[in-house]
């Protein structure tokens, strides 16, 4: 007497196995001859672990282990390389690291989570190979970091797996360049957006790089009379954001300008506060929301943090008490060229980490008092928070536009 | 009480409150298909005893938080997964068949923890996987990420 539900259970399992076989055949490496997924052969009567269960187990493993297990067998290699696995692994394992830069331009990193512990300053910093020295960090998305060096060479780099892609040389690079980097989910693509302003006419050129097509698109004078302020655009939910000013020489922040990475169009929105000293704004992220820090004047004791909610409305999240030391208090007030970010921990106490201008401050959950936490570890200062991921910029570049049908059936 | 029968023809009586942690059996009961013995052709009695032990311990999961028995349950879980590699996989297969989400989570995590630091050779042996990569292909993968194959933690044992 077998019920309908048992039957559905069985159907469910069959579908799962078929789907898995389809996915695991989807592999990037061209050096291997395509073979249909084969179930590993056994030498005893012991049952073979079904592929979907093995996938479930492998998805729990850290990146170092998975990179090692790529050479267990062809089918494991294909699975761990597949976009389904890479993307699912990133969604299930949200581990963040903090990138530090030394005085020589080299990099080290540590995990983000232990930094929430007040007693601990920093665990040991670990070396990481970077593709170039003396870089400016544009931004990061899904574990990929975009960086630019003094020779106007740009890279997309995954420090977790030590893989980087040098961007094709292009004509970008002017006396004032504004940078942005983010993920276009619609096309499963990573894009760098570099906006050049040329002297003396101040005309602008927007250069957009697509990692998937490994090519640049250039758009002339799209931002007439609009000057982007923050050096790096803030990437939130498929869009890059900049504060904008009506003059280039003296920043008077008047609006927020956005660039949609999927359809490559510009938009604009109002600031939540009017009629005040508007050059004391900074754009940033709180958790995963676009946010604005309104730091008022030098000497002020508090700053307001505003955040844009899902409905597109600005709300004042909280008021924080500026650091008591003068040096840090000034850091809070300097130019809107720099951005900020606020990170939440996992524990119940609501302490926040506040990243601003190469300093990490701790914001007490109850008193909202900011205090110095980490600024320099053995000559290294904190730069950027990024996710651990298996995404390899080299395998994404040059693949051509992605076929949408494939990615939809993977969800 | 619900009666379960293993593939070696042994019958076990389990409280309904315990057994409904299995989505599969819960659906059968709701559909009125569990009036007599439920045959489990994929599960042997040794594995079924382990699964029933888990179900009986987790019977009052919701209450555990209120009565402060969470630590007790955590300790039980730790002890529970302390079993041989093949036995663990039998339990995983049973949990998958019976659709017991929490047990599946516990055992898959335990399997992942055991595999984490294993060498490639050890993994192939533990999971009985035949290496079908050529030497050149294998070397290419190692050269691509040499850092993944280094470190004092790498463990070549197979248990």
Features:
heterodimer; A: 411 residues; alpha+beta; 3 domains; 8-stranded mixed beta sheet; 18% helix; disordered N terminus; disordered C terminus; B: 159 residues; mainly alpha; Potassium Channel Kv1.1, Chain A; 2 domains; 3-stranded mixed beta sheet; 6% strand; elongated
How does the SSE layout of this entry go?
The complex is a heterodimer of chains A (411) and B (159).
Chain A: H1 4-25, H2 51-58, H3 63-69, H4 74-81, H5 83-92, E1 96-101, E2 107-111, E3 126-128, E4 135-141, E5 144-149, E6 154-158, E7 163-166, E8 176-184, E9 189-197, E10 204-210, E11 215-220, E12 227-228, E13 234-236, E14 239-245, E15 253-260, E16 265-270, E17 281-286, E18 289-294, E19 302-308, E20 314-321, H6 326-333, E21 340-344, E22 352-356, E23 359-363, E24 370-374, E25 381-387, H7 393-396, H8 404-410
Parallel strand pairs in A: 17-21
Antiparallel strand pairs in A: 1-2, 1-25, 2-3, 4-5, 5-6, 6-7, 8-9, 9-10, 10-11, 12-14, 13-14, 14-15, 15-16, 17-18, 18-19, 19-20, 21-22, 22-23, 23-24
Chain B: E1 2-5, E2 11-14, H1 16-19, H2 23-30, E3 38-39, H3 45-57, H4 61-67, H5 70-80, H6 85-98, H7 101-115, H8 120-127, H9 135-144
Parallel strand pairs in B: 1-3
Antiparallel strand pairs in B: 1-2
Helix pairs in contact in B: 3-6, 6-7
Protein name (chain A): F-box domain-containing protein
Pfam families (chain A): F-box, FBA_1
InterPro entries (chain A): F-box-assoc_dom_typ1 (IPR006527), F-box-assoc_interact_dom (IPR017451), F-box-like_dom_sf (IPR036047), F-box_dom (IPR001810), Gal_Oxase/kelch_b-propeller (IPR011043), SCF_F-box_component (IPR050796)
């Amino acid at each position: 007497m077998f019920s309908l539900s048992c039957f559905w259970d069985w159907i469910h399992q069959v579908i799962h196995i078929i789907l898995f076989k389809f996915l695991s055949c989807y592999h990037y490496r061209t050096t291997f001859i395509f073979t249909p997924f084969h179930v590993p052969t056994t030498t005893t009567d012991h049952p073979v672990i079904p592929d979907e269960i093995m996938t479930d187990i492998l998805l729990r493993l850290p990146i170092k282990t998975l990179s090692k297990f790529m050479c267990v067998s062809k089918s494991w290699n294909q699975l761990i390389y597949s976009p389904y696995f890479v993307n699912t692994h990133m969604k299930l394992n949200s581990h963040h690291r903090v990138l530090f830069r030394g005085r020589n331009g080299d990099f080290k990193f540590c995990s983000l989570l232990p930094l929430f512990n007040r007693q601990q300053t920093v665990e040991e910093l670990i070396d990481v190979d970077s593709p170039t020295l003396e870089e400016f960090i544009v931004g990061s998305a899904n574990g990929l970091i975009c960086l630019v060096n003094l020779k106007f060479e740009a890279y997309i780099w995954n420090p977790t797996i030590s893989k980087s892609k040098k961007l094709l040389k292009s004509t970008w690079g002017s006396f004032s360049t504004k940078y942005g980097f983010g993920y276009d989910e619609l096309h499963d693509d990573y894009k760098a957006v570099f906006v050049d302003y040329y002297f003396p006419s101040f005309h602008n050129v927007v250069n957009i790089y697509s990692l998937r097509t490994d090519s640049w698109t250039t758009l002339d004078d799209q931002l007439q009379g609009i000057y982007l302020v923050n050096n790096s655009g803030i990437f939130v939910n498929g869009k890059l954001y900049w504060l904008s000013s009506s003059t280039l020489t003296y920043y008077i922040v008047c609006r927020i300008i956005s660039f949609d990475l999927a359809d490559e169009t510009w938009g604009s929105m109002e600031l939540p506060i009017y009629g005040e000293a508007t050059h004391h704004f900074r754009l940033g992220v709180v958790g995963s929301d676009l946010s604005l820090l309104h730091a008022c004047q030098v000497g002020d004791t508090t700053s307001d943090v505003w955040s844009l909610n899902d409905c597109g409305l600005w709300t004042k999240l909280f008021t924080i008490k500026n650091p008591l030391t003068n040096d840090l208090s000034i850091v809070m007030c300097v130019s809107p060229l720099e951005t900020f970010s606020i990170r939440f921990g996992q524990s119940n106490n609501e302490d926040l980490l506040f990243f601003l201008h190469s300093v990490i401050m701790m914001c007490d959950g109850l008193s909202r008092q900011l205090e110095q936490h980490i600024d320099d570890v053995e000559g290294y200062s904190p730069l950027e928070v990024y996710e651990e991921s298996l995404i390899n910029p080299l395998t994404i570049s040059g693949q051509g536009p992605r076929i949408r049908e494939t990615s939809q059936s993977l969800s | 009480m619900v009666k379960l029968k293993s593939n070696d023809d042994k019958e076990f009586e389990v409280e309904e409150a315990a057994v409904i942690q299995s989505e599969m059996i819960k659906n059968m009961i709701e559909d009125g298909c569990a009036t007599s013995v439920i045959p489990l052709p994929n599960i042997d009695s040794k594995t079924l005893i382990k699964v029933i032990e888990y179900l009986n311990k987790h019977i009052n999961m919701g209450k555990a938080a209120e009565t402060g028995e969470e630590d007790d349950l955590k300790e039980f879980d730790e002890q529970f997964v302390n079993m041989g590699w093949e036995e663990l996989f039998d339990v995983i297969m049973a949990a998958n068949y019976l659709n017991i989400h929490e047990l599946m989570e516990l055992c898959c995590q335990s399997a992942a923890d055991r595999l984490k630091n294993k060498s490639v050779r050890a993994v192939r042996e533990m999971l009985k996987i035949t290496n079908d990569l050529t030497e050149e292909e294998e070397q290419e993968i190692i050269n691509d990420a040499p850092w993944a194959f280094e470190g004092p933690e790498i463990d070549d044992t197979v248990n």
